[in-house]
Each structure stands twice: as structure tokens, then as C-alpha cells.
Amino acid sequence: MDRSDDSLWEQLEPLLARVQKPARYIGCEDGMTAPEHRPDKVAWLLAYPDTYEIGLPNQGLQILYEILNERADAVAERTYAPWVDLDEQLRTAGLPLFSVDTHRPAGDFDILAFNLAAELVYTNVLNMIDLAGAPLHSADRTADDLFVIVGGHCAFNPEPLADFVDLAVLGEGEEVIGEITDVVHRWKAEGRSDRADVLRRLASVPGVYVPSLYDVTYAAPTAGFTQGPIESVTPQFTDVPATVDKRTVADLGEWPYPKRPLAPLTEVVHDRLSVEVFRGCTRGCRFCQAGMITRPVRERPADQVRTMVADGLLRTGYDEVSLTSLSTADFSDIETSVLGVLEDRRAAAPTGPDGMSLGCGTTINLPSLRVDAFTVGLAGQVTSGRRSGLTFAPEAGTWRLRTVINKLIVEEDLYGAVESAFSQGWTRLKLYFLIGLPTETDEDVLGIAELAKNCVKIGQRHTNRASVTVSVGGFVPKAHTPFQWFGQNTREELERKVELLRSATRRAGNVNLKWHDPAATTAEGVVSRGDRRLGAVIERVWREGGTFQEWGEHFDLDRWTKALAAEGLSLDWYVFRHRRSDEVLPWAHLSAGLHHDFLWDDWQAALAESGVEDCRWTPCYDCGVCTGYGIEHVVASPVPPAGGSQGTGQDLARGAAVPLHLTFTPVDAPTASSGVRATPIEAADMAVTS
Amino acid sequence: MRLRIRYGKLGKVRFISHRDGARLWERALRRVAVPVAFTEGFTPRPRLSFGLALPTGAESIAEYIDVDLVEGAAVDGTDAGMIEALSDALPVGIDVHVIATLDHHGGSKRTSLQDEVTSTTWELSGPALESTDLASASERLLATDELLIERERKGRRSVDDVRGLIRHLGPDDTATRLIAELSTIGRGLRPAELASLVGPDIAAVDVRVLRTHQWIEHDGERREVLSLPVGVTALGAVSA
Predict the structure, then answer these.
(1) What is the DSSP string of A392-456?
(2) What is the C-alpha to C-alpha distance for residues B14 and B8, in angstroms, rounded to an integer?
(3) Which of A78, A202, A457, A644 matches a 20 to 30 Å C-alpha distance to A138?
């Protein structure tokens, strides 16, 4: 197959000798498919717009890869962003983007489908479309060109990419990819007639959004700015839906994928088996887009989890498995599941006379742990060997701010978890926090340092080596969340807060502070809530050489600010400005099922420091998803898990003292100086009724 | 008990690094349920030892790995089923050719393969070599008393004489490929470095490299670590 006429391998091989980490481009993984291409099949090239190391473990891509290749009428291969060295080699040699499975040129495929997991990869999307040999703008593509599709979490606001993509898919892909395949298959069988015609047909597939079939108009500039918000978004035809709804798989148990997980030949970011235990999360953290757009909670049957782990470990030879979800300790059967997995492994192990063999020592990874002692006890049961590090995400430094963001961890629970971890042999803790959250004061920021120091004190009662790493990221408001109306902190303000933390932790030897670059946070903010006018900005950044913007050594905020200025657009307007309830947000015609009123009320509740409980175990508060889509939570346990932390059964009234308020629009200085928005100002405008 | 495995690395997988290879072997051995011994200590690791590193991009039909088995484990290394099962569990292009059982014990006193091997044979090919008079180039190099190359390591420049490391050099029967036996003493001489000595126009990056043998010389006698069984010898041709 490598030496068939369709493969570029012979031409690629000499180039690979000239680049770093050539194993990124060879494919050959366990679980790889070398599908048989036929003209009547719909050929998908599934793309991850960042390096192989980051993209290979992506579960969404692996799931779709397998489901498509199981179909008789489709084939799927994979591609990842070639690193800058190979990109240059390919362009010099006149070679296109290629698949890693059979090294076919991208142009041989019907569909180039991107998984969008982060905003800063958008310039890589453009680069890959260009490298694939397709016209960059969807308007310039003809019936012979590929269809460019985006999916994944960022596709819930695909507007900044509207000029470049043919379709965006909202929500879970398991079912909708089959429906898209059907439409494209029929269109090919009919002789690939008019491209506009097939796009129109695709627009009627639920979950599929075709940006080119909507007209967007803009209102007069907002006072103090050169640009105004969207006035209207109108479908061009009556059969094109005014609102596109997300897709949701009702029963995760029907989709036990990946069945043949890809085990890479070279190092990747998550080099272990992953088994998804549930989808969705209703903890209701207000900053968290994943928790909002993936509702409701759907658990995988516990026996299926056990089978998938046993099969996957056997198939791949891994000795480590991650049970993945947005909050794995919330899985109803978590304890019996992990014990079952360990039992299966012991039974399967060909134990030698001295009791040591490769079958022993399986490690179960529980990412996204809730913060409480029960959870730590669970983690203690499943990690074998050295207990090096454990990670918690309190997200905010004070209870007050945690009620604002609805991450309802009380300090007793955090310290209980920390005590439990150190007493069970862990020596290093990692704590994740956000800075730049709504209503945040310097006291909240300094609370982060306080928490960290207290954790070290607890640890030192158990070990001299106790250390705590504090990792802070600047908060970027996301579409379809209660914080979508919030004006992000400026770069200067985030830098000031980082500096506060640096001086507060400087003398605390066992507290290590790490932070995400506030400049990158600013650029993420541009794209996160951007509209179609940003297409020209992204294109400029890409043309100026701005690929791999997720990578510190390639990122440059100046490229972004210059591109915005060149297009007459405003950083302040996109990023730092609070929005009103009645503003037409760029994604208003795209729905994750959440009512506008639910999100707005939750935003108001946040400002009033009022928490909400998890609706898995308490009455529905009508966010709109279950009722709107006729789906329900699939949760095995009727009661919240043991441990009780994080918003289940807590006294939510405590701590809500003096509510702070936000100014509505930033003060009109173009790059508002730090401190301006940290000062609480009259709230009049924030109380806009919904 | 220790298994000594000779395997090949041909085709696309030549771009996997030596370090990546270690992970692949761990997974493959687990899949085949070989009862591998573990190191002692807080984080036990499977007791595998790899021979001389193969440069990323080079192919080979003479790679080695030593696998220590748990006490008392009885594994028949000559079992064809095991050779096949391991090859199946490894990526396409990595194939097991021979498994030998070494009985000696002795923990830390055991000499590693890396220390035992004294020289390795390479086959160099590619368009740049085809257009070079390999016979006279080889004669020219072998006639010199010293061959100085400049290297940089950890920011320090050094000039090394590598003449003594070339034990054999000459074209193959087709006169299009270069066969070289290079000593592995000290820092050794990498085949890519040799290629650039052969001709000023030869870019090392354009030369295909295949390791065909690893030799142990003892008391003036040279033997191959493990010989390929009859019938597998033609493998070199695959790498054209």
C-alpha cells in the first residue's frame, strides 16, 4: 500500500530525514487502519490542527476515525499540523498536506475535518487548508475541492472561521458524521453537481451549521468604539434553520469507542489508554464551557467500562489507563469500577514465581478529581508505586469568589483532601487556579497564595519534601456560559495579579508558582467571543507567519494587535468589554440547548454570590437541555457520591456578604491601565433585566 | 534467565528514535505476556537492556535487546510461535529474527551488550553514492594515516582522528553501495560522518544507512552476536 501510486511516501521520505521528530509523520500506530479507497466512498481526512504529540491522544478524533472506517461507504485517515520545519520542506518540494495512515495527499479526500480544542490553533487551520491545496476561502471552492468541516468545543462559536469553513458541527459527532457521509455520498453518486446545492442539503442535517448560508449585518458602532455589535443573522433560505442545535448521543453505552485505541510509536502528551466513563457535567462551574455545552450527564455502564479497560490494556500493552470525564470521581460506580479493573488485571497477569511480572502494577489514572478526602482515598487505591503528584483545581482563592464561579469547595474539604494526600505518601501537590474571574479583588488573588501556604504547612507535618505547585491561568470568557457577557481582564491587569502572587509566594520556598502568559490569554480572548469580522485578522496573522500560536516560542501578541488595527477592529471591543443582555452575540443562532434566560440569570446569581446545586441529584433548574432535546441524565446513583463536597449538600448561604459589582463598559482608554476594572463601581448597568 | 533477541527495523519505522523503541518493546512484551523481571526499588521498571543506539533514520537487520526474566520462568526462546507473536505485537517493520536463551546469572557483574560489541557493519546507499567512484574513494580513505573530523559536543569543539575506527571499507558487488565496518570503541564513528568523508558532495542526510551486523571480538576472534538463520540473510535487499 505504501508503494501504491496514491501514496506520497517515496517523496516524503527524503524530507523526513531533514526534520525534527520524524516519527510524528509515519503513522504505523497499533490500531491504525489503512483503508481501501474507492471513488464511491466518502473519504474523510480527520485533522488535528496542532502537533502529533498533542493530537494523537485526542479521543474524539479516534472515535470518529473508527466509526467512519467501520462504514462500507466511507474511509477515514488522519493528519496533524506539520511542524514548521516540515511545512517549509513540503512547500519547497511542492508537496501537499498528507495523511499519516497511507500518506495520501489531502486533495484525494472529500472532507477535511478539524477538531477545534483551542482558539489559538485557528491559524494552523488556515495553514493546513492552504497546504492541502484547497482555496483558503470557502467562497472560492468548487465542486472539485474538499469540504472543510470544524467540530469540537470551539466550534460552538465558529464565527471567526466562517470565511474558511464549509460546515461547523455542533456537539457530539458519533451520529452526525454518518448523516453527513450519507449526503456527500449521494451527491458524489449523482455526479458531484453544484457545490452550493450540497451545502444546502447539508444545512438541513441537525447539528450542521453552514456559515455561508447566513447573512450577518452589524449595528452602528458602540459608544467609544469604532465597531458595533451584530444587528442580525438571517438564513438565506427558508429551509435553512434559523437556529442550529447541537447533537447529543442519548446513550453512551451504545458507543463503546474507541474499540481499537491508537497506541503511538513515539512520545505523546497522554501516553496511556483512555476510557471515557461519562460525558457531560452538571456541577455548574460558571467559567467552564465544557460543563455547559456537554449536558446532560450520561454515564457509561460500569461493566462496559470494565470491559473496555481490560480489552484496551490487552490490545495496546499499556500498563496505565485514564478513566476520563469532566469529573471522574463523580462517576456513580467509580469505586467498584476501579476495584474491578484491578481485579481483572491481577487475574490476567502471568505472575512469575517471584510475584513480579509485566501484568502487575497497572496504574489507574483519575484526572479531573474533585477536591475531597474521599477522592484522595480513591486515588490512593489505584496508584501503584511512587505517589509523585496529585492535582486539584480549587480555581479561586476565596470561598466568596468560589460562590461567584460556582466551584463550591469549602476550605475544610480542600485541607481534608490535602491532609489525606500527604498522609498517604504524596509529596507534591499541584493546584490550579484562574485569575481575572468576575468580581475578583486583590484579596481573592492573595487568597491563592494563602491556600497554597496552608497546604504546604499541612504537608510539612508529614514530610519535609512537601511542595505545592500553583498553576494560574488567566480567565477567558467562553461562548454559551454564564460568563459570556463578562469583560475579560486586560493583559496589564493579569500581569499585575501575577506579580501580586509572585511577591506573596516569593519567600515561601515550597510554593512554586507557574502562570500562563497573559499575552496569550489576551489573544485567546479575541477569538473566543469573536465574530466573522475576525476572519481577516486570523488570515493576516497566518500570512505574517503566525502558526503554532499555542507554542510560546511562536506566539507574538503584536501580530494579533497589528492585524486587528489593520482591519480597523478593536481589541478592547472584543475582549475587555462587558456585554448587555440584549446584545446579539455572534453565536446567538447556535445552540447548546441552554436558554438565554438561564445563562443570564446564572450570571446575575454569580454577581450576587449565589451558588446552584448539581441537578443530577437535585431538582431541575431548567437550563433547557434535557427538556429541549428530550434527553435525560443517565446516572446510576440516585444520591451524590460520598465525600459530599463541591456543591452537594452544602450550606450555600454562608459567606455571601457584600456583593461586588462591575462597571459595564471599560473606561475608554484604549488599553485601560491596570486597576481600573479591579475597583468596584456602581452596578446600575449590570442589573439589566433579561 | 535472559533472552537475547535479534530484530530488524526496516521501512517507515526507521524514523522512530532509540528512546521510543524502549517504550514499544515494553508494550509488546506485555501483550505477549513474557514474564519479564523488574528492577528493585520504589518505581520498578522492566529489566530490558538495549544494545548500541541506532541513529534515528537508520535501518537495521542487526538490533539487539536483552530481556531478563523472572526467576524460574521457563521460556523457550527458539519457539517459532514466540518469535511470531512478538513480531505481531511490534509495529510493522520491526521484526524479531532470532531469540537466544542465555543462562548465566550474576546480576550486576553481567556485561552489557553495549560493552561487548566491538564493531558494527553498515551498508550505505543513495543517489549521491551511486554517482561516486566508491572503490577509489575507499582506497583514498584507507591509505591515510589520520582522518581528522571536527565535532561539537555539549558546546565544546573537538578534533578527533577517526582513521583507526574504520576497520573495513569498500563497495559492494554492485559498486553502488558502500560497506563499512566501524569500530565502536570510544565515541566511535557514525555512518553519517563516514559518508561525508567519502565525498565532499555527499550530504549525510541523503545517505540511506542499514546496520547489517554487530560483532564481538575476543582474543583475536571475531563473531557475530547472534547469526541470522539461513533464509533471513537476504533481508538487506528490502531496504533498497
Answers:
(1) EEEESSSHHHHHHHT----HHHHHHHHHHHHHTT--EEEEEEEES-TT--HHHHHHHHHHHHHHH
(2) 10
(3) A78
Superfamily classification of domain A252-629: tm_1862 like domain (3.80.30.20)
pLDDT of the residue at A335: 86
**Whole-complex ipTM:** 0.91
The answer to whether the CB of A419 falls within 8 A of the CB of A458 is: yes
Amino acid, res. A351: T
Q: State the Cα–Cα distance between residues B89 and A581, nearest whole angstrom.
A: 58
Q: Closest chain B residue to A311 measured between Cα atoms?
A: B31
Closest CA to A401 of A286, A283, A293: A286
| Interface check B16 vs A, CB under 8 A | yes
What contacts A144, CB < 8 A, 6 or more positions away?
A192
User: A343 or A252: which carries more pLDDT confidence?
Assistant: A252
Is residue A669 within 8 Å of A580, Cβ to Cβ?
no
Query: Over the stretch A72-99, which tens digit does the pLDDT of each residue have?
Result: 999 999 999 999 999 999 999 999 999 9
| Spans of all domains in chain A | 9-169+173-245, 252-629
DSSP A59: H
Q: Does residue B38 carry a pLDDT above 50?
A: yes
Closest by alpha carbon to B39, among B108, B141, B116? Answer: B108
**Range name among A37-46, A233-242, B69-78 with the lowest pLDDT average:** B69-78
Sign of the torsion angle spanned by Cα atoms A287, A291, A294, A296: negative
Select the residue of A22, A357, A361 nearest B15 (Cβ to Cβ): A22
pLDDT at A678 over 60: no
Question: Which segments of B42-189 does DSSP mark as H helices, in order?
Answer: 80-89, 113-116, 127-130, 134-143
What is the spatial distance between Cα A364 and Cα A345, in angstroms, rounded to a whole number? 11
Under 8 Å between Cβ of A172 and A136? no
| DSSP one-letter string for B41-75 | SSS--B-EEE-SPPPTT-EEEEEEEEEEBPTT---
Dist CA B216 CA A497 (whole Å): 63
Tell me yes or no: is domain B2-114 CATH 3.30.70.580.
yes
Q: Which residue has 500581569 as its cell numbers? A: A495
Residues 158-187 of B with CB under 8 A from A: none
Mean pLDDT of A150-165: 98
Output DSSP code: residue B13. G
A33 touches chain B (CB under 8 A): no
What percent of chain A lies above the pLDDT cut of 70?
89
Amino acid identity, position A629: Y
Q: In the predicted model, is pLDDT for residue B239 greater than 80?
A: no
Cα(A589)–Cα(A430) distance, rounded to whole angstroms?
Answer: 39
**Band of residue A382 on the pLDDT scale cut at 50, 70, 90:** confident
Mean residue pLDDT across chain A: 89
Tell which of B1, B15, B56, B94 to mutate to test the A interface (max A CBs under 10 Å): B15
- The fold adopted by the segment(s) A9-169+173-245 is Rossmann fold (3.40.50)
- Gap from A2 CA to chain B (nearest CA, Å): 9
DSSP-derived secondary structure letter, A246: P
Contact yes or no for A99/A44 (Cβ under 8 A): no
Provide the pairing of β-strand A320-324 with A273-276.
parallel
Percent of chain B whose predicted confidence (pLDDT) is above 90 = 59
pTM: predicted TM-score of the whole model, two decimal places: 0.92
Residues 6+ apart with CB under 8 A from A434: A287, A395, A396, A405, A472, A473, A474, A475
- Cell numbers that stand for B150 in this block: 571536527
Q: In this predicted model, what pLDDT tens digit does every residue of B2-16 receive, in sequence order?
A: 999 999 999 999 999
Q: Are strands B48-50 and B59-68 parallel, antiparallel or unpaired?
A: antiparallel
